[in-house]
Structures are given as C-alpha cells and as structure tokens.
Specification:
Layout: E1 2-3, H1 12-16, E2 35-40, H2 56-69, E3 72-76, H3 87-90, H4 93-101, E4 106-107, H5 118-127, E5 131-133, E6 137-139, E7 148-149, E8 151-156, E9 159-167, E10 176-178, H6 181-194, E11 199-205, H7 208-217, E12 223-227, E13 233-237, E14 240-244, E15 251-258, E16 265-272, H8 281-298, E17 303-307, E18 311-312, H9 315-318, H10 324-337, E19 341-345, E20 354-355, E21 358-361, H11 362-366, E22 377-383, H12 384-394, E23 406-409, E24 411-415, E25 425-431, E26 442-448, H13 449-452, H14 465-468, H15 477-488, E27 492-493, E28 501-503
Parallel strand pairs: 1-16, 2-3, 3-4, 4-5, 5-7, 9-11, 11-12, 12-14, 17-27, 19-26, 24-28
Antiparallel strand pairs: 2-15, 6-10, 8-9, 13-14, 15-16, 17-21, 18-20, 19-23, 22-26, 24-25
Helix pairs in contact: 4-8, 10-15
C-alpha cells in the first residue's frame, strides 16, 4: 500500500488510479470512467486532534477535491455516534450534523452505535442526510430500523454499483439483533448479483480477519471498506482490496476502480489528513458551533495539572498490560472512595491518544471517560477468592487485549499467558503494602458501575448490589481523577511505580 500526501491540488489522483497500487498489477494507462471511493471509520470526534491532524472539515475538503475529478462515493464504516466527549450529552447529534455538512453518502452501524437508546438512535438516523445501510442488524423483532436500507444500488457512468453493510455480532441491547454477518453478506451478494450489479462493495464493521475471510468466500464481492480496528490496515485477495483507515480521521482510504464486471482493476492509497489541508468552511462552521456548546457546558478549557512525562493513553497501551494512565485512575478511585483495592476495565478509558508532557486540561480528563453513568464508581466487599476470580477473567482470552482487561490499584499479581485461559494468575495476589490476600480475607473494592452493576465485559459482581441501588449518586471516575491530581498529587503528575501486573 502506497501512502500519499494530500496537497492543495489533487491532479495526481488520476495518475494514482493507473499504477495498480496494492494490487500487484503492472502499471497501466490512466483509467477511463473510474469509480472512486473515499472511506473513513471509527470517527468519534469531528474536530481536529490534539496533534493538529484529522478533522472532518479537512476530510470534507479531500472529498470535494476528489469528487471534482469525477463521481465519488463517500462512506463511513461504523462507530461515530458514540463514544465521545460531546456524545456524553448529545448522543451523536453533533456527528450527524457534521457528516451532513461533509456530504457523506453512506454509513453502516458500528458496535458503539448501539450504546445509545433505541429512540435516540432512530432519531439520529432520521436526522441524517446520508443513507444508512445494514444487511444484518435490525430491530429485535426482525424489522429494519426506520430509514435503514439492507442494500442499495447507484448508477455511476452507466455502471450499477451495489452496496451493503454488515456489523460484527456482539452483546447488544435488547432492542437490536445483529444476525450472522457472513450469512447476511451472502444474501446481499446474491441479491445484488440478481439485480445485475456491475460492481459490489461491502461497508463492514468487523475484524480484518473476518473481512479477509469474507472476500475469500465471495468471489463476486469486489471491494470491502471496513472499520472496527483503529489502525489503518489493508489486505489483498486476488487483486481485490480490504481497506481500513486510522480512527478519528487521521487518515482516509481512497480507492479507484475501473474496467468491467468481473475484471475490475483497483488502485488504492492511504491519505493522511494533515494540518496543511484547508478545512471545508461549511463543515468547519458546524464543528465550531458544537465546540462552543461544549464550552458553555464545561467552561473554557483550563489547565488543572502538569504531566512530568508523556502519558500513553492509547487503547493498545491500556488493554494488554499495566499502564501509567490505568495506575493513575485506579489510584484516584481508591483514594477518593477509601477502598483497599480498585479494579477498572481498560475499555472505560476512551481517550485513545497521547497526553503530551506539559499541561493537562479539564477537557482532556473529561475525554478519558465517555460513558458517564457506566464510570460511576461503586464499592463492594470482595473475598480474596473473588478478587482472584476477577483477575483470572482479566487475563483470560475473553478479556486480554480487549476492553475487559483490568487495571488495578492496591494489589499486585503475576500471570502466565502460556497457561490455559481462566487459570493464568500464578502465586498469591499481594497487597501493595505487603502480604498476600488470603482466599477468605474480605477487602473493600472500588469498581465502575459498568462491571459491578451491569455485568459489563462478562464480569459478575453480585456483592455490589447494595451500592448499585444508589449508583446514580456515586462519584464519577473523572471527578475522582481531577481531585486526585490536584489535591493528592499537587498538580504534578508523574508515572506511579510500576509492577502491579507482571507478565511471566
């Protein structure tokens, strides 16, 4: 895959389409009558990122320039209504307005779309000027969501382009049912083939392995524009591409196809969304208006502490090992509640960015916790045996490298990933101040409501039932963290001593 830089002109796009980039084909003349696709995925914020890259207004500019060269289909492969700092209060309305301004053509469901209520999701779909498409996700009774198509066709330069969308299966709210994506994809391909589609494209929200397998199985499927992973990825199966961009519009995937049915040639490029790209004014106005609403709600962004060193708050750093941010948050949970032990599912921390050395603002800390009710902190009395059971799940196949991996405070333990899943914690679970926690010992543990009250990530904590009954008044994790860094740490944040979670 060749990485290209988007400058102020994109006359090179016609040349790019002819080089057979990423397909293994030899160079060819510039294509005639090409069909173009621009794809983004997992876009939780419309504004630019802290490093100055990204931003839907810049992606809109890219789209406008590419579309000026010829017909272009602009898609978003899931995850954009939730979670984000603004979505805490506005449930994705800000994203729909920005994507409307950016002239998005199609979106499919990501797993996070189902974190908002049914009525709210239906309202967001109704507000969309772009089309929603999903072949496998419906209401629980099997009816389609109002305004959502199972598949669609569009004519471009005399060719019929067929599109469909699929989302990975998961543990979703009762109002939604996502059927097997492979079976749904087969039905969609059959239908679009029967409708004489010249080109069939899938917009998917699932793993790269699932996408690659789908392309292997479905010879009539020409292109997959995917999401779910947050890092740009690509795969080629018999000259056909799977493409995923980086999350939060750090990049966009661009594909050009030309030829005839059954003989499409493809050229692809990963386009960085650099700060040098002038923002689209219409989209920028929408983004700025929503930022102003955030300022009215939270006040101006202000410094509340200073980081002595950079803090890696990316998902990949939180979900497979002890992390500096995980240590800080769980220490804050323990200090703010008076608990002896704190346990936090890594998926509760959603910043997915680096916190640079220097000023830490209230906006940054608010942006760590994007599920404000699920990250209210409750307490429960747990035996040493139950603590061990929860830690075993944390390092099991079901949670390790995923959002269910636990960051901890007040204890340290060792695990062996070569042992069978469910039996990887080895040796005693030790108190930070020394001494093993016996299996019958009872300690007070602080946990987020998502785990303790809702069985999130497969955890079961019936001992928290009394605290869960009053969860609405429990402290927010972000408030505990703000108090901890300002009061206990005196506004200077340094990495706590490591060694809480040791991988043998």
């Amino acid at each position: 895959m060749r990485v290209r830089t988007m400058g102020r002109r994109i006359a090179w796009l016609g040349v790019l389409a002819g080089v057979g980039c990423g397909t293994g084909l030899p160079p060819a003349p510039a294509p005639t009558n090409p069909i173009r696709f621009l794809s983004i995925n997992d876009v939780y914020v419309a504004d630019t990122l802290s490093d100055g890259t990204g931003g839907l207004a810049r992606v809109a500019t890219m789209h406008n320039r590419i579309a000026a060269e010829g017909p272009t289909i602009f898609v978003l492969a899931g995850d954009f209504l939730s979670p984000s700092l603004l979505s805490k209060w506005y449930a994705g309305r800000q994203m729909v307005e920005a994507l409307n301004a950016a002239k998005l053509d199609y979106a499919t469901f990501g797993n996070h779309e189902f974190e908002i209520s049914q009525d709210t999701l239906v309202a967001r779909i109704g507000e969309s000027k772009f089309k929603w498409i999903s072949t496998n996700c419906t209401l629980a009774n099997g009816d389609p969501f109002p305004g959502v198509l199972p598949w669609d066709t569009v004519r471009i330069k005399g060719r019929k382009v067929g599109l469909f969308g699929v989302t990975l299966k998961g543990t979703y709210p009762d109002y939604v049912r996502c059927a097997d994506p492979d079976s749904a994809a087969r039905r969609a391909v059959d239908t679009l083939s029967a409708q004489s589609a010249d080109l069939i494209v899938a917009i998917t929200h699932q793993t790269i392995e699932a996408d690659r397998a789908l392309l292997n199985r479905e010879a009539r499927l020409d292109l997959i524009l995917g999401g779910h992973e947050h890092e740009a990825q690509g795969a080629v199966v018999s000259t056909r591409n799977v493409l995923k961009a980086d999350a939060n519009s750090r990049t966009a995937q661009f594909a050009t196809l030309w030829g005839i049915k059954g003989q499409w040639r493809q050229a692809v490029a990963l386009l960085p969304v650099h700060a040098t790209i002038a923002p689209d004014t219409a989209t920028e106005r929408v983004v700025a208006a929503w930022h102003d609403s955030l300022v009215r709600r939270l006040g101006s962004e202000r410094r509340i502490a200073t980081a002595d060193a950079a803090i890696d708050a990316r998902d990949e750093a939180q979900r497979q090992q002890e992390s500096v941010l995980g240590d800080l948050v769980t220490d804050a949970m323990r200090a703010g509640t008076g608990a002896e032990v704190a346990l936090l599912n890594a998926g509760a921390m959603r910043l997915d960015d680096m916190i640079a050395a220097g000023p830490i603002t209230n906006y940054q800390l608010e942006s760590i916790f994007l599920f404000q009710d699920d990250t209210r902190i409750v307490k429960a009395p747990l035996t040493g045996a139950r603590i061990r059971e929860l830690l075993q799940r944390s390092v099991s196949d079901a949670a390790l490298d995923k959002g269910g991996f636990l960051q901890v405070s007040g204890i340290h333990f060792t695990y062996d990933p070569t042992r069978p899943s469910g039996d990887r914690v080895v040796g005693d679970v030790e108190r930070t101040k020394g001494g093993a926690i016996g299996l019958r010992d009872v300690v007070t543990a602080a946990l987020p409501g998502y785990l303790a009250c809702h069985g999130g990530d497969g955890y079961r904590v019936p001992e928290a039932a009394e605290s869960c009954a009053t969860k609405a008044s429990a402290p927010r994790a972000v408030d505990l963290l703000m108090a901890y860094v300002t009061d206990s740490l005196g506004g200077h944040v340094s990495p706590p001593p490591a060694g809480r979670i040791v991988r043998r």
